[in-house]
Amino acid sequence: MTKTSKQNTFGPLIVDVAVPVGSYYLFKDAFGMSTFAALAWSSAVPAGRTVWSVVRERTVNGLAALILVVNAVSLLLGLLSGDPRLMLAKDSGVSSIIGVGILVSVVLGRPIMTAGFKPFLVRGDSAREAAWRRLAEGTAEGSGAFLRGERVFSVVWGVVLLAECVVRVGGAYTLPVDTMVWLGSVILAGSMALAFVVSRVVAAEPMARLLIAEVRVAEEAVKAEVAVAA
User: Fold this and answer.
1) Is the CA virtual torsion 144, 150, 153, 155 positive or negative?
2) What φ, ψ does residue 91 adopt, rounded to 5°?
3) Do residues 113 and 157 touch, judged by C-beta distance below 8 A?
4) pLDDT by residue, tens only, the chain of 230 residues
5) Using DSSP, how many helices (H) and how many strands (E) does the chain show?
């Protein structure tokens, strides 16, 4: 994985997890804000990052748009209620709605997680891009397995995010707020790591093998045509 790829992968995670936790304790302990105010202000950075991503890329990514809308609605509800535990639970609500959105996209036949992991498999190679297109369009021998892998990848993420929501909501209403601020981030990071590992093993790696095999099939076909023409 290149340096740029690592930044693109882990940068948003740092902003969405590390920055809110650090800013919460900064606002609460250093500036003397209330628990609710500290939670509200610490939620502003991830929301701003999502807006900036949409503006900078000038394209509406389905997942980014979903995160933005849910963040805005949940933050508004938290401000109206003034309940710090609801502010903690709303982060879990974000995960749950995203998880449901991912699963719905699978049912509709347009898994939204594909846009996130496709670049790692294609790697900017034109031959791989063409192979991906044939596999995705169902015109290649391994298309069936490839499309199943695409759906499984999104299903794994959807299920893990829903499970993460259940755990964090339970903690938000049973554990001290200060504990859940950092523990919730640990649960989120752990859930993402789990989803990454599982989806890679059961979906991404098999899809990569199918992609490479399709590239080789295409190369052999070209060689055969050249041999006939000669």
Assistant:
1) negative
2) -65, -40
3) yes
4) 444 444 444 445 445 555 655 666 576 666 777 666 666 676 666 666 666 666 665 555 555 555 555 556 656 666 666 677 877 776 676 678 778 888 999 999 989 888 878 888 998 899 999 999 999 999 888 999 999 999 999 999 999 989 988 998 899 889 988 888 788 878 877 888 899 899 999 999 999 999 999 999 988 888 888 777 76
5) 11, 0
Query: What single-letter DSSP state applies at residue 31?
Result: S
Distance of alpha carbon 23 from alpha carbon 93, whole angstroms: 21
The letter for the amino acid at 58 is R
How many Å apart are CA 108 and CA 210, to the nearest integer? 23
Sign for the pseudo-dihedral over CA of 144, 206, 224, 137: positive
Alpha carbon distance 218, 140 (integer Å): 10
Residue reference for tokens 């992609």: 211
